[in-house]
Structures
1.
Amino acid sequence: MKPEVSHALPHDAALQIVVVEDSPDYGALVQAMLLEHWPGAFNIHAFDRIELATGWLAENTAGCVLLDLSLPDADGLDGVNRIQHVAGDVPIVVLSGNDDEQLALEAVKGGVQDYLLKRSVDGPLLARAVRYAIERRRAELELSHLALHDALTGLPNRVLFEDRLELAFARAARAQDGGRVAVLFLDLDRFKLVNDSLGHAAGDEMLVEVSNRIAGVMRPTDTVARFGGDEFAVLCEQIGHPRELIAVAERIRAAVAAPMQVRRREMFVTASIGIALAEQPNPHAETVLRNADTAMYRAKDHGGIEMFDRRLQAAIAERLKLEHDLHRALRDGQLRLHYQPLISVDGGRMRGVEALVRWQHPEHGLLQPIEFIPLAEETGLIDQLGDWVMNEACQQLARWQSDGRAIEVSVNVSPRQLRPALADRVAGVIDSTGVHPPRLCLEITESQAVGDDAETMLTIERLKGLGVKIAIDDFGSGYSTLTYLNRLPLDQLKIDRSFVTGVDLDPHKLQVLSALIALAEALGVTAVAEGVEEEGDLTRLRAMGCDAAQGFCLGRPVPPGEIDALLNNGA
Ligand code: C2E
Ligand code: MG
Ligand code: MG
């Protein structure tokens, strides 16, 4: 059905119609024709100079402008441009004399809504032209709004944001007051999880709430945009000191982090924010946005807010290279496993070893896990790396086994690997290497095992079902509850070295450590103390009845051949 034009007329009591026409007679004629044929209420404001009309338009809102194309102070399209400059949204109908129809057509191309030839205008035609002009302008504005805004949140989209950014650059360059332009790039943490677990409708609801919260803590003149997905951008102008930006980012983070109701559930979401200042001179929208994006990625690993700078750029480049190198390392066999002894506290026998991965990097030498495990976890390479470690460690265990060595091998498992499929992989490796499952111990860090994540529980139970042992690594450093400890089928607690190293000289540490050992005993699992660096610490552990210990004073991580040597020497 075609909408009836008159329904869509402005609801205002009276429409303000501006007539710019230097001939008083023609002006009066227009007024008379409208009076007769216009269905609604209106006021006419007639001006004979463009300057007077633009003066009025700068202060008032017009419903429509009827514009003569030849005026004493504006000729041709100049008049159109000047009206559009002060009142960009107003519909314009140009009135042209016989000789400038070509010009009128140009004006339509330049954005006016209609033109009428003065000599053939009559009342109905004029009234209809005004109505259509109003409607057409409204539709145009609607369309351009759609093209420039995000449909879900109504916020500006990337296109409009970039446009405003360019305008801000221009303003800053003109102002020359040292005020700078900056972009904040915001991404919600683990938003995908919300979408995947609660559905897209809930995700959308959350995004709308988040957008309101961001806008709520910004000035109305700041631009807050949604770039799609869970990405938002904020444009800040007139920044004196970068500190101010950190304060803005903190305000946004706090607003987003407050609990929210989504589908009648209480939800929490956090945001990571990257900040980039426009470079000077000659800033580029694309560069500033890319820098803010880079800083945001960095913010994901560094507690939420990060400011872009040159050093960061260098670090990112370095990281990209490392990631590339790590791919190659897996392919070209640059990874190694070192083994660190686990010693029985009474008796001093080597009861097992922990496999610790190293990377023999062609340029950087032997890299420690801290230098590449986090990267592998973020990039997903940890699955491949973990598989390699599991396979390599089990092959080594199989060798020791066939040499008649009664030692266990412990393998570290990353949170990301801890999914039900891991059990199948481990089963495959046990099969292919022929290791005796109870000789293999999997170390899970405390934080992973926490909570009642059903998938994690299922994985651990499946692993346990294979007959392997399960250890909680770095125990005490996470946030565990005793309930979860009770529920997990555990064999070992590896007490974090922060409770162990230097225990001999620290009575408070001694108390905590003895409580942790007692807890392991109560749970019926083996207590292993990590980070034993001094003989004195070991003596304490013995006195407290700790089962096993690991640490530099008992043996550093070494290549497997050196473990053989130790075993041969009767360790
Ligand atoms: P972790 O599992 O807690 O391993 C023990 C770490 O403590 C090792 O560091 C070891 O060298 C160090 N250590 C041992 N004794 C002492 C001591 O007396 N004093 C001190 N200060 N440190 C000691 P490393 O080899 O650098 O490994 C660090 C972490 O990297 C490991 O902590 C583990 O979480 C992770 N990691 C190592 N290899 C792998 C692997 O193959 N896969 C995964 N996912 N993570 C691994
Ligand atoms: Mg470990
Ligand atoms: Mg540990």
2.
Amino acid sequence: MDTNIESHLKETRVFQPSPAFAKKARIGSLTKYRRLYRESIAHPEKFWAREAKELTWQKPWNKVLEWKAPFAKWFVGGRLNVAENCLDRHLHGSRRNKAAIIWEGEPGEKRVLTYQQLHRDVCRFANVLKRNKIGKGDRVIIYLPTIPEAAIAMLACARIGAVHSVVFGGFSADSIRDRIADCGATAAITADGSYRRGAIVPLKHNVDEALKGKTSIKRVIVFRRAGNDIHIEEGRDVWWHRELEYVDANCPAVALDSEHPLYILYTSGSTGKPKGILHTTGGYLVGTHTTYKYVFDLRDEDIYWCTADVGWVTGHSYVVYGPLAAGATTFMYEGAPNWPEPDRFWRIIEEYAVSILYTAPTAIRTFIRWGDEWVKKHDLSSLRLLGSVGEPINPEAWMWYHKVIGGGRCPIVDTWWQTETGAIMITPLPGATPTKPGSATLPFFGIDAAVVDEKGREVGPNVGGKLIVRRPWPSMLRSIYGDRSRYKKQYWSEFKGSYFTSDGARRDKDGYFWIVGRIDDVLNVAGHRLGTSEIESALVSHPKVAEAAAVGRPDEIKGQGVVVFVTLKSGVTPTPNLKNELRSHVGTQIGAIAKPDEVRFAEALPKTRSGKIMRRLLKEIASGQTVTGDTTTLEDFNVLAKLGSAEE
Ligand code: WTA
């Protein structure tokens, strides 16, 4: 039986980098990219060592890579400090007074921290940590909104070698408790509350709930953000601002082994028990710094805005570590994109003259749904580069991003990577790579990605298969915290010596990667294996559709039938006729085989808090089951209730 994933979606539009952009870019042509890529694959250690030398090492490494599959050590014997590289390194020249972080709170407060100021704040807070008996190797939970203090807390941990685990501020007390228990954290850093759509999220209260009963946490440091009433547990809880009164700004950066743990970040994806993804110091910093520099082709005058929350890996690698290591100005916004109105993002871009915007397809589809009028109110001419991450971007969403946000002039970097990979893996380089809407294009330097069949053999052009990486790279996860055997089994057991991403993909005749979604989500309809993202993209290309999710349900004849959940654009009325129209639309876009057996209209789709559609839940609903299993990552429980009762 043919077990390969079939790919039917044909996208023929190609966008060349503009000569003006290419002229200034670090990598200014496809030929140059290909040459450097070939070299980086022939001699990866040489490539990564060259990049690593741009950073500050307190002691040089004696070996670039030690690979005892599946365990890697990068820059063996080297010593460095991530906070030193993100801060102290920039204090000698004119960057000292450059804005490191520009922040806007949801209610509208504005703050600017120069590198000099951020350095001072981090040193002082690192001394607060020490004062509270937090030291090298201790695990620290950070449960904060997207405010500068989140970056300060992360960098302060890094400065003294404490290991942070950021928990997204939208997660519940249960999630916090599980994560504390899994990593044995002894301290937590939180705020009284945070703002979301005008309301206050009671962060400290959630922490209190999480600490009821037996806990390893001995100290909670509380930042005053929202001013809401909170409980202070004597002997356990202290105020951030009070603690600062006892410390000075003198805190040398500890020289840490290159493989010293930097952070643990829990990821559940859309299925299963959360895994504590472990990242370490040297390789992670080299990976994030190198990718940041080339993929965003940073200029010193850029204002760069990645809209991710600090609670996600994108918030770690491309709000904090990558940009600060590169001496960029990173913009942070605390709140919701539709507060007070749906044009908040465009208002921000205009006001701060943001030049690089990095966001997620789920956000882009939401903006499309809200309507172009919100964008048109603002001058977005400061933008010069756009990025996308988190899901396959549907070609129509890509086109909208390109035209409406980018004014047709900004390159789009569609970056494929994972919490586990630490840094961008497959991506265009904006001055070099011709882009095709919906494709993450080509692998980054040193990344040996391939699409293979069940036996691990590389498949030919336009044949779907599994996406793997055939050799280690510096920013890769080192393990699942406390569970080396799960790490081995989950990522390295399916294809010997290779990392399995769990994603399905195909490469086209130009070698471009098209990610078709998680393998778990692949449908098998009458012996045809179809990626969910293609069916969804076909639906989103219909002018009335805002978002779509495709799932399988058991079907006696075909094995699986296709059920699609569709949200319509504002103002469109759901009718039975429209259902038929959408079925035929998928038929003409992809082929009869992909025609949905059932179309369901939904007001909203169940998503994880990082914006990924939870197909597992939809699958259960589609097959008439009650929803079971983990729903703690769900953004909005009401959505689920409504879907369950959705009529045909
Ligand atoms: C998906 C986010 C297609 C993919 C950085 C991956 C993408 C998972 C893209 C990781 C992209 C991320 N195109 N799919 N550009 N970026 N994905 O761990 O399925 O939150 O495996 O990391 O998101 O999600 P995670």
